């Protein structure tokens, strides 16, 4: 896999504060002079979850390339620095520290996993370095641990996301399962991780509120390959559907083993399993399985067509369809914020920590048409775009079957 972990290192360029310097040591941040700034990316670029992680990396790369080509911020050239967190919180925290330590970095896109985000937020916040995730959906990341009781408090002012939360996704999936699929008994499984467990919990609560019944619940570990005992429990529960909270790495094997054991019921999950890799690995038995994902299908958006063409023409690895567009918009929000700071400062960029602080403030005021829709954030740092889509495996491909906005309440 092509991994741009060394696209830009702190020592690779003679940079100081957040700009390049001329031979006389002057700060080149004014009009007509050159400044190089870095957009960081953190995602799983190898191993588990790498198909979607690479989509984040290359979605951000296209945004950087477009900004430079269009001279979006005159006098500023943007670079990408992509770090591999391997879907591990500890590695994500190390990467956050590395990005903070690189004084050319003015913002970061990522990570993929909500559990990894929890380990990074405090590091970025302490440095006033803006972080925009294209994929994190755990509500507590923006609304605090007591969000379900209505006591919403934003934990970190530096954290934003372009993906809507599981408070919406879980309820949206439950409503579709009950009202459209007419399912009555669902067996709920999760991978014990922040994203998977949270999503499964919300789905189950909303499914029951809408009149359904939880036929059983169970948990698996990330990296598990043999799900024989789980399959037996599901079959004995008489469930007419399985809901899985977690990533595609496990769900693609669960559905395969379940169908091979004779249980001809669909498996449904969230955006963590919405990738072509799921279908490729599970094979024909995945036919009829379902997944929800954030936003409107990228292929149907006129605003995303150039992005898709570029991604394919560059032969980038990974999956652009899940989070590639949201990564592009996240990186663009950071780039536009740099431009806004420069304009507000008489055409010159502040230096050092002041630039990061001003960029963070400007991101919070974002309001522009991105390739996935309007890019704007509420007081918690959540996207104002709450569109969601249900996809179903049809003839070996994910096909959109319903797109709507959901508020997270059973109705």
From TrEMBL:
Residues 18-43 are annotated as: Disordered. Keywords: Signal. Belongs to the leucine-binding protein family. The lineage of its organism: Bacteria, Bacillati, Actinomycetota, Actinomycetes, Kitasatosporales. This is Branched-chain amino acid ABC transporter substrate-binding protein. It comes from the Bacteria. InterPro entries: Leu-bd, Peripla_BP_I. The keyword Oxidoreductase does not apply. PANTHER family: AMINO ACID BINDING PROTEIN, LEU/ILE/VAL-BINDING ABC TRANSPORTER SUBUNIT. Residues 36-396 form the Leucine-binding protein domain.
């Amino acid at each position: 896999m092509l991994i741009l972990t060394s696209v830009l290192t702190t020592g690779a360029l003679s940079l100081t504060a957040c700009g390049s310097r001329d031979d006389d040591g002057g700060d080149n941040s004014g009009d007509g002079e050159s400044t190089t700034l870095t957009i960081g990316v953190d995602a799983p670029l190898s191993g588990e979850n790498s198909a979607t992680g690479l989509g984040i990396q290359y979605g951000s790369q296209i945004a950087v390339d477009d900004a430079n080509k269009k001279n979006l911020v005159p006098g500023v050239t943007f670079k990408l620095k992509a770090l591999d967190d391997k879907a591990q919180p500890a590695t994500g925290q190390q990467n956050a520290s590395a990005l903070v330590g690189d004084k050319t970095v003015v913002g970061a896109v990522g990570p993929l996993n909500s559990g990894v985000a929890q380990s990074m937020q405090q590091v970025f916040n302490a440095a006033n370095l803006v972080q925009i995730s294209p994929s994190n959906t755990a509500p507590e990341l923006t609304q605090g641990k007591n969000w379900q009781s209505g006591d919403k408090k934003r934990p970190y002012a530096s954290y934003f996301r372009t993906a809507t939360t599981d408070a919406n996704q879980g309820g949206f999936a439950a409503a579709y399962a009950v009202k459209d699929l007419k399912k009555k008994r669902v067996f709920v499984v999760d991978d014990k991780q922040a994203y998977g467990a949270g999503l499964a919990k919300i789905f189950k609560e909303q499914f029951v509120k809408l009149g359904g019944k939880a036929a059983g619940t169970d948990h698996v570990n990330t990296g598990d390959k043999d799900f024989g005992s789980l399959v037996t429990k599901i079959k004995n529960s008489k469930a007419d559907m399985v809901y899985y909270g977690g990533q595609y790495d496990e769900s693609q094997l669960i559905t395969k083993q379940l169908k091979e054991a004779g249980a001809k019921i669909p498996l449904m999950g969230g955006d963590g399993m919405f990738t072509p890799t799921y279908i490729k690995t599970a094979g024909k038995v995945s036919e009829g399985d379902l997944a929800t994902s954030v936003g409107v299908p990228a292929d149907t958006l006129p605003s995303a067509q150039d992005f898709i063409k570029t991604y394919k023409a560059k032969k980038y690895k990974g999956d652009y369809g899940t989070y590639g567009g949201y990564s592009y918009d996240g990186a663009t929000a950071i780039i536009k914020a740099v431009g806004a700071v420069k304009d507000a400062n008489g055409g010159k960029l502040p230096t050092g920590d002041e630039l990061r602080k001003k960029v963070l403030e400007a991101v919070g005021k974002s309001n522009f048409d991105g390739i996935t829709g309007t890019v704007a954030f509420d007081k918690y740092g959540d996207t104002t775009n709450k569109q969601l889509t249900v996809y179903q495996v049809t003839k070996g491909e994910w096909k959109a079957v319903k797109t709507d906005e959901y508020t997270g309440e059973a109705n």
